[in-house]
Amino acid sequence: MRRIIIAITGASGVVYGVRALQLLRQVEDIETHAVISPSAFRTAIDEIDMSADEIKSLADVLYNHKDIGAALSSGSFRTAGMLVAPCSVKTLSGIANCYNDELIVRAADVCLKERRRVVLLFRETPLHAGHIALMDQATRNGAIVMPPVPAFYSKPSSLDEMVTQTVGRALDLFDIHLPMVKRWKDGPGSPGQH
């Protein structure tokens, strides 16, 4: 059983983290360990039609965001890595600066020190120089910054398809390959084929 950490922060785009948990429930050999910030629950009220309890129930294991003594805070707790979806500026700043005041940043810092994959779906636009500097520092620390930019080559017919495609591509970075992800030039008649 592979473990993956899914963190959901208070940036706009809570649906990305929720979708990751939903999709991973369908993968038999994956166990999800989730940390959800209070700001994420607040943002969810405005963005999705799910209660906090419904969101919490998607994770195999749920941790309190303040519990820096949780299993995730130790490098001896083996995981495939961590997806932060969406990643707020505050969380990006904490990860870039190793400011481990809460479990989301602590778990990311542990993954980075153990050379495990950390993918940040940074959800902010437009960007100022401070945001860009933080993304640069997080990348230097070993994280992958992946703004959730839609892949229009997949010709999505709905927002739901766009979200699923983006989350699927993020999970690709953990070698979790989902069948619903549309891939460039996959087979006859796919985008780019002539």
Structure description:
The protein is an alpha/beta fold and 194 residues long. The protein has helices at residues 14-24, 38-47, 52-56, 89-97, 103-113, 129-140, 159-172; strands at residues 2-8, 30-36, 61-63, 81-87, 117-122, 144-145. The model has no long low-confidence stretch (mean pLDDT 95).
| Main beta-sheet strand count, sense and barrel state | 6 strands, parallel
Rg estimate, integer Å:
16 Å
Q: Using DSSP, what is the number of strands?
A: 6
Spatial strand sequence of the major β-sheet? 3-2-1-4-5-6
Structural class: alpha/beta
Into which percent range does the helicity of residues fall?
A: 25-40%
Number of helices: 7
How would you state the average pLDDT, rounded?
A: 95
- Report the order of strands and helices: EHEHHEEHHEHEH
Question: What is the CA-CA span between the terminal residues?
Answer: 42 Å
The 3D shape can be described as globular
Low-confidence stretches: none
Strand residue content = 15-25%
SSE topology:
Layout: E1 2-8, H1 14-24, E2 30-36, H2 38-47, H3 52-56, E3 61-63, E4 81-87, H4 89-97, H5 103-113, E5 117-122, H6 129-140, E6 144-145, H7 159-172
Parallel strand pairs: 1-2, 1-4, 2-3, 4-5, 5-6
List keywords for this structure.
single chain; 194 residues; six-stranded parallel sheet; alpha/beta
